[in-house]
Design a protein that fits this description.
globular, 0% helix, mainly beta, seven-stranded antiparallel beta sheet, 52% strand, 83 residues
């Protein structure tokens, strides 16, 4: 399973276990993903790590001092973006 963390601005927009779809956005050298309908946004993701599956499931929601973060799982191989 591939996991991606999304930033959510307000609590209560998503629940753990909820099925989601994402929309892909294009920047000059990266992609970014938005949980529909504009509920949370991913960080910029380099072209070589493009998400292939647009449907996933909310695995976790965490609140910290910087806001709310949603971790979603997608049915595709995990990638190591540190390489």
């Amino acid at each position: 399973m591939r996991r991606i963390e999304f930033k959510m601005e307000r609590p209560g927009l998503l629940e753990v276990g909820q099925k989601i779809t994402v929309t892909e956005g294009l920047l000059p050298s990266n992609y970014y993903y938005t949980i529909d309908p504009s509920l949370a946004m991913s960080p910029n993701i380099p072209f070589r790590y493009r998400l292939k599956n647009r449907e996933g499931v909310v695995a976790d929601i965490v609140e910290n001092s910087r806001g709310f973060y949603v971790t979603a799982e997608f049915d595709e191989p995990e990638v190591d973006m540190t390489k």
